[in-house]
Amino acid sequence: MTRPRRDPDLVRAYVVTGGVLRPSRDVGLVTLLVAQDVPAQGLAPEQRRVLGVCSRHGALSIAEIAAHLDLPPSVVTILAAGLMDSGHLAVPTPVADVPDIDVLKEVLRGLRQLV
Amino acid sequence: MNSETALWCVGGALVVAIAFAVYKARSAGRLRARIARLEEACAARDAAVAQLAAIGLPTAADLADGARPARSTPALAPILAGTPFADSAAVLAQRYTVGLGELQVAVAESVRHKAQDEARQTTESSVRSFAETVVSLGANLSKVVAQAMREHRGQETFETLTLIDHTVQQMIRQAQSYVVVCGGLPGRRWPSQAMTDVVRGAMGRIQDYQRIRPRELERQVIGQAVEPAVHAIATLLDNAARYSPPGSFVDVTFQEGHHGVTIIVDDAGVGMNSEQLDAARRVLSGQEPVDLHRFGPHPKVGFPTVAALSKRYGFQASVDGSSSPFGGTRAALFIPEALLAADVVEAAPGAAPEPEPPEPSGAAEVTGAGLPRRRRHIATADTQPLPPILSTSAPRPSVAAAWQSGVHSADEAAAPSDPAEGTR
Fold first, then answer.
1. Helix (H, G, I), strand (E, B) or coil at B252
2. N or C terminus of chain B with fewer C-beta within 10 Å?
3. Residues of B in Cβ contact (< 8 Å) with A26
4. pLDDT digits over B287-341, tens only?
């Protein structure tokens, strides 16, 4: 399968962000993001690429997304902030979903068996 | 009797001789008069020919001064009046003066054209050389800016770099228009690009790019046509945005036809009246030759640029005052099949799941930190997914969250290191 080469210089960064110069929320380079199951209709190509790479790799940080997509980190920060606003991306919160203690014990046992 | 007869004979002969002599004398007189007349006529002819030569030559010499040749018929002696010679001389003189006049006009015209051509060539080559320098410096600058955006991460830096970049892109477009109008080639080279990116590349070169609403099309434009297409579309977009209200949108759609793809730009401006439309069509179709000298003090190089690019690359540009759904102007650029690459071959269904877009190839190229190594150009997509960092299966928010909270607590521990390094 052949894929077109994308020249990173042809489409300028401000076109990619749609003219947004600052992220709408505070997102750090190491902030982990997880794709949510929301239809990706109406999104710009790069927003879909961000979503695509996130859903393929589980959770990714901004820096990792930038590296995967060969985009400047600032651009990914702005795109990700927008996607978080629209509910396509979320920062996973540990509150209610902490693994059961038994599961952890099982994992520990499994790990010991491996060693 | 005999002597009388002889006397009569002698007398008769004498009479005859005298009569003959008288006759001869008269005849000689007539001949002399005729000879004199002929000599006179001959002299008059010589004089007339000399006069013709005399009025002819000085006039030819006067040509350089731009004086009109004297339009005269030679003055003929009365003796030649009505003769065929007089008629021929008059015709000859007439032809000569008329021919001389025409020659003079033709020479003047050709001298003027030559001077104009030389002046145009000089102007064109100097404007072109200047504009090419600006384009080349601007292209270098935009590479530097793109690189800086990757290296410097502060959002303030990004804002400033973006403003610089936007200005540089517009500067490049303006300069490149002059390059093209002066007969040059758009200098920048790209690999083949999707129509989507061609249009978005064009958006980056105009002031009001945020008002452009582009559709998407994955058809590929071949490398050598990318820059001319981007430039032509940028010109049409700039026109559409410039002549429509600031709050309105400019829509870009695609029509895939049998012979190529048409990019359609619809604005909601006041539109053009029929004279403006006619003028624009004449320029776009290349009927009106591009002349730098006729641009005047406020040159409009937009449509002439599109016309020049269309002529060179085989695009077809058109404007229409009635078919825009927003009541404005519709501009269209047809890109022939020859400038479009073959369709991208899609992966067989069920093969490696490849959701959206291309991604930097390189499961093999991974940095020490486990991240893909950055590459300047993306050649192919990865058929082999990157080694998963957390999980190969669906997102595991719980695991991610555990990692996240660990990172955050580490961040907090190292908090007072450098407050200026924040993301804001």
1. strand
2. N
3. 423-424
4. 877 777 777 777 788 999 999 999 999 999 999 888 888 888 999 999 999 999 8
In DSSP notation, B305-320 reads: HHHHHHHHH--EEEEE
The answer to whether A100 contacts chain B (CB < 8 Å) is: no
Buried b (16+ CB within 10 A) or exposed e, B54-76: ebbeebeeebeeeeebeeebbeb
Which whole number is the average pLDDT over B171-187? 91
- What residues of chain A lie within 8 A of the CB of B356, using their CB? 45, 48-49, 51-52
* Domains of chain A: total: 1
Contact assignment for B358 to A22 by CB distance below 8 Å:
no
User: Which alpha helices (DSSP H) does B152-222 contain, by range?
Assistant: 155-181, 195-203
Contacts of A23 in chain B (CB under 8 A): 155, 423
Instruction: Note whether residue A98 is domain-resident.
Output: yes
CB-closest option in B347, B358, B392 to A6 = B358
pLDDT for B76-100, tens place per residue? 777 777 888 888 888 887 888 788 8
Residue B144 CB-density burial (10 A; 0-12 exposed, 13-18 middle, 19+ buried): middle
Specify whether the CB–CB gap between B376 and A22 falls below 8 A: no
Which chain B residues are within 8 Å of A93, Cβ to Cβ?
397, 401
Name the DSSP letter for residue B292: G
pTM score, whole prediction: 0.68
Q: Which helix (H) or strand (E) holds B84?
A: helix B84-151
Interval B335-394: pLDDT, tens: 999 999 876 544 434 333 334 444 444 444 555 555 555 555 444 444 444 444 333 444
Pairing label, strands B220-221, B250-256: unpaired
Q: Which residue has the higher pLDDT, B168 or B188?
A: B168
Confidence of residue B400 (pLDDT cuts 50, 70, 90): low
Q: Which structure tokens are listed for B357?
A: 């877009």
**A3 within some domain:** no
- Most A CBs within 10 Å, among B161, B169, B172, B200, to test the A interface: B200
Provide the domain limits for residue A79: 13-114
Instruction: Indicate whether A1 belongs to any domain.
Output: no
Residue A49, min C-alpha distance to chain B (Å)? 6
pLDDT at B348: 38
Kindly state the percentage of chain B with pLDDT values over 70: 76
Residue that the structure tokens 């434009």 belong to: B221
Q: Which amino acid is at B37?
A: R
Local confidence band at B195 (pLDDT 50, 70, 90 cut-offs): very high
Domain CATH code at residue A37? 1.10.10
Whether residue B264 contacts residue B252, with contact meaning beta carbons closer than 8 Å, is answered with yes
CA-based nearest residue in chain B for residue A81: B423
Domain annotation covers residue A78: yes
